[in-house]
Amino acid sequence: MHRIVAIDRRVPETPSTVTWRFRDPTPAAPGQFVMVWVPGDDELPMSLSYTDGETKGVTVKAMGATSRRIQEIPPGTRIGIRGPYGNRFALTPRRLLIVGGGSGTAVLAPGAEALRRDGAEVVGALGATTAAEMLFAERLRSAGARIELATDDGSLGHAGYVTEVADRLLGEPGRFDAVWTCGPEVMMRKVALAARARGVPAFGSVERQMKCALGMCDACALGPYHVCVDGPVFPAETLLGLSEFGRSKRDPSGRLVPV
Amino acid sequence: MHRIVAIDRRVPETPSTVTWRFRDPTPAAPGQFVMVWVPGDDELPMSLSYTDGETKGVTVKAMGATSRRIQEIPPGTRIGIRGPYGNRFALTPRRLLIVGGGSGTAVLAPGAEALRRDGAEVVGALGATTAAEMLFAERLRSAGARIELATDDGSLGHAGYVTEVADRLLGEPGRFDAVWTCGPEVMMRKVALAARARGVPAFGSVERQMKCALGMCDACALGPYHVCVDGPVFPAETLLGLSEFGRSKRDPSGRLVPV
Amino acid sequence: MADLAVDLAGLSLRNPLILASGIWGESGDSLSGAWDAGAGAVITKSIGSVARPGYPNPTVEPLDPGGMLNAMGLPNPGIDEYPAEIARAREHGVLLIGSVFGGTPEEFGELAGRMAATGVAALELNLSCPHAEGYGTEIGSDPEDVAAVVRAVVRQVRIPVFAKITPNAADLPALARAAEKAGAHGISAINTVRAMAIDPELERPVLAHGLGGLSGPAIKAIGVAAVWQIAEAVRIPVVGVGGIRSATDVIEYLLAGATAVEIGTAVATDGIGIFGRIAADLARALDDRGVRRVGEIVGRARRGFAVPSAEAPTPGRGAISRSP
Amino acid sequence: MADLAVDLAGLSLRNPLILASGIWGESGDSLSGAWDAGAGAVITKSIGSVARPGYPNPTVEPLDPGGMLNAMGLPNPGIDEYPAEIARAREHGVLLIGSVFGGTPEEFGELAGRMAATGVAALELNLSCPHAEGYGTEIGSDPEDVAAVVRAVVRQVRIPVFAKITPNAADLPALARAAEKAGAHGISAINTVRAMAIDPELERPVLAHGLGGLSGPAIKAIGVAAVWQIAEAVRIPVVGVGGIRSATDVIEYLLAGATAVEIGTAVATDGIGIFGRIAADLARALDDRGVRRVGEIVGRARRGFAVPSAEAPTPGRGAISRSP
Ligand SMILES: Cc1cc2nc3c(=O)[nH]c(=O)nc-3n(C[C@H](O)[C@H](O)[C@H](O)COP(=O)(O)OP(=O)(O)OC[C@H]3O[C@@H](n4cnc5c(N)ncnc54)[C@H](O)[C@@H]3O)c2cc1C
Ligand SMILES: Cc1cc2nc3c(=O)[nH]c(=O)nc-3n(C[C@H](O)[C@H](O)[C@H](O)COP(=O)(O)OP(=O)(O)OC[C@H]3O[C@@H](n4cnc5c(N)ncnc54)[C@H](O)[C@@H]3O)c2cc1C
Ligand SMILES: Cc1cc2nc3c(=O)[nH]c(=O)nc-3n(C[C@H](O)[C@H](O)[C@H](O)COP(=O)(O)O)c2cc1C
Ligand SMILES: Cc1cc2nc3c(=O)[nH]c(=O)nc-3n(C[C@H](O)[C@H](O)[C@H](O)COP(=O)(O)O)c2cc1C
Ligand code: FES
Ligand code: FES
Q1: C315 with A69: Cβ contact below 8 A
Q2: Domain ranges (residues) in chain B
Q3: CA of B203 to the centre of ligand 6 (A)
Q4: Which atom of ligand 2 approaches the CA of B259 most closely?
């Protein structure tokens, strides 16, 4: 029950990320993901970086061998899609802080845009290793979000971790009624702790090994949850309560390995 | 995908026929039949003798071993029902003649009632071997139909074949705009020929061996037709054009045997 | 417009859509009707040595989702009576395949000879008869039995012989190879899958026979797997059967390696018009992908396919397909 | 309120609804979650000697109508690592059945011993591993192989052993009898049915492995038939598996002769709450028919049932049932 879509547009976003846009009228919500089958290659979970209307999108980061390989596929390539799966970001905040690390911003962008359209205030703290790797800063700015940047090498914005920017922003009492975050789990853990310290509810989108995406095979088990159906978005409080969060994940065989 | 119904009422109609009434909200039309499964025994096609509302009915005639045996089952018995299957009598005539032979009247009764409710004129020529076997004469009379009777032994109405009564009635030019008939095929053939002679369109309901009732197994093959889906109601002209009509039918093995 | 004609073991079919055995197969008029509706060939119901009424009703039970359960019990008028029906269909110009079933190789051979003598263009051997009632196996589940039956048949006839394989066996490729080696000209796969329904209220089996065979969309993926495995194992053509209801289903079978397909249960759910509809849709679908003859896509799903290992992750497995 | 507890080969289950192997079976927390959701027992995923990542994705494809296709490739962390998960579930008080798979009787024996040592209450042997990749058969399709595996296992352990039978075989009763004779304490039937899907547009198999196994409602009638046949052939209890999604489905399996049932794919389609819902519905359904203990209806569809002949019509076959 997958469907076939052709990649209409291939947009290189940064040296290591590319966005595929494709026509797919199936409704989707910010935070949800699809299983993307590259025929002749793997099938991977990918968050929808564009959830609106009939033209959806995913943003693929070169991480391991597969994601590197499939980055190269040209426009016109037909891929299989299942989903959307998983839960969504609740579009209730009126003063939202998003904290994105690397390609994690792709997960946050569609929801941030939706809230902006709705008149909410959105501030973004976006981090990357280097200036060229900064993702979706312009996209979010043109949606009317205030964006602050951080790079590990100082080539753009704050020199250092994006969590430091987030900490500062969260220091202004009452400024935000919610925080969304996506990125490396160590980063998300820091954001979660900072948000807890300020009493702001936070939500993080996490990744785990996925096979069925249907809540059956247990590949994505995270404590008592299944990321494919109970997630990928979890309250930060839930994540902080999980011994595996930021520490371990399961490999394809089900073995616990360090994140 | 059969459904289970309980026989609510068991109405002995004549020494050889009994009606089972059962609650079954599935819509049905006059002329259609159901497959009736008597658990622990056979499954037989049975025309619906009551098609209206939520309480349907079938009228079972003791013919062979099975139909004799199942006549005895008491009220409360649960039976399986599939259907309704097959086509229906078009409820368009305004001046209808029905010609029923034996239990064949059961097939004609619900449509005749419906037309009467609709204000149409209905005349019935009903035949039976003997007075006690006359079926649904009262039912049709109280629906406002004019009923004429015939018995083989002369114990009620005209002494002789019901086709003689039908012939006489059809002799009044322009009196009827349609004839419906059900009964032994020799009888139906006579009615069909009489109607043709008078230029009145006629329709007959026929029976053949049935297994699937879905137009698949070919058990009910009658010339190029399948009685279960193309029938059981056929234009008399069609029937008269079939070499098998009134002459041969298929036994359960598919062999052609005399009717 | 794509050419739908196929050569099936020497038979010239105007299209690859064959009426499956046991459907519209009792009367010569029905066989003719299926032909007129657009079937590329029609298979008779399975005929045995003597007339059999089959099991008492209920013999058929439609199941959700998309399944049809039946235990007809091989009703048939017997080989003495049936040739009259064939004669009628032949007069009508129908391309006929005669199906026979027997309990022993000798009985199969005898029946095959008599069926061939009626002038049918080919034979299909229904190898799904129970060895002995009450036991779970069929004569078609053992490669040696299959080979013996096929050998006995090909000795008797000069027309193409198709061995129809049961899915109720462990090793379908082995059955197909046995049939091929014994001289079969083609393999049909699959017959119905052993199945059963119990009425939960009445607490008894629904079919009079208890056990039955499942057909219809519920078994399509089982049939496709069988064709995929068998087409890899033999060189003779494979005819795909099971759950076909659309041109897309036909394409799936062709891609798996079927040269032609049979359609059964869909006649109940969609009417006999299914043949004409699928033929039209198939021609359009082939046009859309720039295919001129059906044969071009037969087995094409195997192109560039390799079985990965479950022991270690595999890197890129074959070509990436682009839209045309 | 009807008592849902059952005795299954000496195991006391609070209800007959068991989590099937391969579903929610990777982590101790998930096993515990299935238990908390109301399962009467839970089966671990099938564990082998070494860690296997399984096949690459796509490993799962939902099919219409009502089918689920998968070829996971038996991913598992291996018997060295897995006991940690079991320990976690045992701490939680879960009634655990350990599933193991191997390539030879010796490997099965070794694994069974190590699995039993973790403290699971029983073992289930997954006999559906391919004999040799690329061939159609499984170690579980030959009665002698099955007997050898079961013998090797029962020598090693003192807990009940269930042999899980593949439907991809000709004679399921023979497999079950072989397992029983070799000392198995129960039979689970069935595992997934060999099946495949091909993408008609991309012209390639959907699953990375090509061939897969079908589960879900599409195979329910196949599983019921297996249980019906096996329950007649053996005296040890039978656990029914395949396509169960409702209390009515459970009743159908119980009537066919299953002492308990396993639920797999329905966890994907209906969520883990399916266990609680079915348990409640089952208790109500049993109350409605005046049944006090689940065991009363086990095998009851056989009451008064006799196989009719297809050679001549049969007169009245058994009792007529009345409404209560
Ligand atoms: C719900 C969900 C949504 C996802 N959305 C996206 C998305 O929108 N865009 C996208 O590019 N990817 C996304 N992913 C991740 C993606 O599915 C793959 O896991 C990723 O592309 C790596 O696959 P691979 O086979 O190339 O790498 P692998 O061979 O699996 O791993 C290669 C290396 O990368 C590391 N690695 C793998 N995944 C991560 C990670 N998540 N964070 C840090 N290191 C990692 C591994 O530890 C390893 O060192 C998502 C995953 C999930 C579960
Ligand atoms: C569409 C359809 C609707 C039907 N509706 C009804 C109905 O409403 N009520 C009803 O009682 N039956 C109806 N029947 C007939 C019924 O299904 C059985 O065929 C009938 O009850 C005889 O079954 P049996 O097994 O008892 O007799 P069998 O053992 O099959 O036959 C016993 C004897 O009766 C003769 N016989 C069988 N059927 C007929 C017949 N139709 N006319 C004359 N002789 C016959 C046989 O030739 C044989 O001599 C219908 C059949 C069809 C196909
Ligand atoms: C009612 C019915 C009767 C059948 N009779 C026969 C038969 O006589 N001989 C045979 O080889 N197959 C018989 N089959 C099997 C079909 O030919 C076919 O293999 C099977 O139904 C799968 O195809 P389908 O899903 O298109 O129906 C029968 C199937 C049905 C449903
Ligand atoms: C994703 C998935 C993984 C499975 N893994 C195993 C396994 O490891 N061992 C096993 O014995 N059966 C396994 N099975 C088979 C199931 O236990 C069960 O026998 C089958 O799915 C039929 O039941 P269902 O229709 O309720 O799913 C698996 C099934 C599925 C769908
Ligand atoms: S990916 Fe299979 S349970 Fe989540
Ligand atoms: S009863 Fe089967 S085709 Fe009419």
Answers
A1: yes
A2: 2-84, 95-258
A3: 21
A4: 47
Q: Is B179 on the interface with C (CB under 8 A)?
A: no
Q: Does A3 touch chain D (CB under 8 A)?
A: no
Amino acid type, C223: G
pLDDT tens, chain B, 259 aa long: 899 999 999 999 999 999 999 999 999 999 999 999 999 889 999 999 999 999 999 999 999 888 999 999 999 999 999 999 999 999 999 999 999 999 999 999 999 999 999 999 999 999 999 999 999 999 999 999 999 999 999 999 999 999 999 999 999 989 999 999 999 999 999 999 999 999 999 999 999 999 999 999 999 999 999 999 999 999 999 999 999 999 999 999 999 999 8
Long-range pairs of D79-82 with CB within 8 A, sequence gap ≥ 24 = D79/D47, D79/D48, D79/D49, D79/D111, D79/D114, D79/D115, D81/A255, D81/D51, D82/A254, D82/D44, D82/D47, D82/D118
In order of start, what are the domains of chain C with their CATH numbers?
A: 6-322 (3.20.20.70)
In the reported structure, the alpha carbon of residue D216 is separated from the centroid of ligand 4 by a whole-number distance in angstroms of 9
A95-258 has which fold? Answer: Rossmann fold (3.40.50)
Separation between Cα atoms, residue C322 and residue C306, nearest integer Å: 19
Look at residues C210, C143, C74 and name the one whose alpha carbon lies nearest to residue D170: C143
Which residue among C99, C168, C191 is best mutated to probe the pocket of ligand 3, counting the most ligand atoms within 8 A of its Cβ?
C191
Residues of C in contact with D63 (CB under 8 A): 221
CA of A18 to the centre of ligand 1 (A): 14
Q: How far is CA C7 from CA C4, C12, C34, C150, C251, in A?
A: 10, 5, 20, 22, 17
**Contact assessment for residue D103 and residue D129, using Cβ atoms and an 8 Å cutoff:** yes
Q: Which residues of A touch D201 (CB under 8 A)?
A: 4, 78
B/D touch flag: 3 or more CB pairs below 8 Å: yes
Helix (H, G, I), strand (E, B) or coil at D189: strand
CATH number of A2-84: 2.40.30.10
Chain B residue numbers touching C53 (CB-CB < 8 A): 251-253
Q: State ipTM.
A: 0.94
Assigned token pair, B119: 């204000």
Which candidate in A36, A41, A209 is best for mutational testing of the C interface (most C CBs within 10 A)?
Answer: A41
